[in-house]
Amino acid sequence: MVAGPTSVGPGKDRLRLWIRLLRASRTIEAELRERLKKEFDTTLPRFDVMAALYRSPEGMLMSDLSRFLLVSNGNVTGIVDRLVSEGLVTRARRNGDRRTSMVRLTEEGSKAFAAIAAAHESWVGELLGTVSEDEARRLTGMLKSFRSNWEGRE
Amino acid sequence: MVAGPTSVGPGKDRLRLWIRLLRASRTIEAELRERLKKEFDTTLPRFDVMAALYRSPEGMLMSDLSRFLLVSNGNVTGIVDRLVSEGLVTRARRNGDRRTSMVRLTEEGSKAFAAIAAAHESWVGELLGTVSEDEARRLTGMLKSFRSNWEGRE
DNA sequence: TTATAAAACTTCAAGCTTGAAATAATTGCC
DNA sequence: GGCAATTATTTCAAGCTTGAAGTTTTATAA
Asked: Which residue's CA shows the smallest distance to C1' of C18?
């Protein structure tokens, strides 16, 4: 997924775009992962889960998390397990539907997340610093239209 | 890495861009991974390694692969191990420098890759079909300038 | 009611990934 | 030559990831 097309022709422009997109996100992701580990001794998946929960003080179901984060159900189980054992998150069985459990940030988790998120935002600002604000908005617009087209496919 | 910023302010545009970028590449990556598995019983990392080797008939060192694919050394070891056991790749100790080994596609590997790559390219064309050719080129240009700025940082 | 299906999760095996530590070979310096 | 530093690679533990199979609970419908 990282090697480029060697020939030319129709369809190659999209392949080129895909390869660039993937390389850019892998590059940034690797840098963020490394800093999260070094500065906060945490991981990207844990950060993702906490970010989702931070936006939902009322809590989220495991399946909500899975859908929102675009990862599998079993995956979320493991990440939440670890966050629970670190005291950053709670998993509460519900009375209404005993199959589900509501996942929430603890007080400690919420405080920890706020600090990490601030650093994270400034890192992204730094790493994407060479992209002008204007360009950033245009790129975002294109990706947004990609997303809505994607969601509307059969 | 997937949740969005909730507030506004300077720096938020780049954060928004990053989140969109990551969601787009994860979405496409997941789809490609699934199809590679279903149609060819292979994985994205194996495909990546084969793609790199396909461009270098003379072969690549493990460290070349690692650098080119943006993954760790130890990671490449495992993927190449599996490709070797599948008969798609060879690892030849060199006489010049016995620390290194030259990795090459086998005849079979080369044939297999060509078939997969053709499908892969058409999938990407399909999945990015809603991005116009013109937009694709502009986006690629922006990502290219991001890349060269990145490589030129201290 | 009471099977049957559907939904929410968890468990598991296999593979991917990193970073650190270990091996082995080469290079540079005295 | 001999020895320290460097380079190329492998090994390993811990964690991430998926898809499939299993468990428990809820909904459906004859």
From this structure: B72
Which residue bears the tokens 């003080």?
Answer: A57
pLDDT of A56-106, one tens digit each?
Answer: 999 999 999 999 999 999 999 999 999 999 999 999 988 889 999 999 999
CB contact under 8 A, B136 and A14: yes
DSSP B9: S
Contacts of B131 (CB under 8 A, 6+ apart): A14, A17, A142, A146, B139
Full DSSP string of A82-113: HHHHTTSEEEEE-SS-TT-EEEEE-HHHHHHH
Given a contact cutoff of 8 angstroms between Cβ atoms, the answer to whether B44 and B29 are in contact is yes
Which tokens go with A133? 């604000």
Alpha carbons within 13 A on the beta-carbon side of A124 = 26
Closest Cα in chain B to A148: B130
Per-residue b or e along B98-109, where b marks 16 or more CB atoms closer than 10 Å to that residue's CB: eeeebbbbbeeb
Strand D lies under 7 A from the Cβ of residue B43: no
Contacts of A131 (CB under 8 A, 6+ apart): A139, B14, B17, B142, B146
Give me the residues paired with residue B36 across strands.
Answer: none
Specify the pTM: 0.91
Local structure of A41: helix, strand or coil: coil
Tell me the nearest-neighbour CA distance from B37 into chain A, angstroms: 14
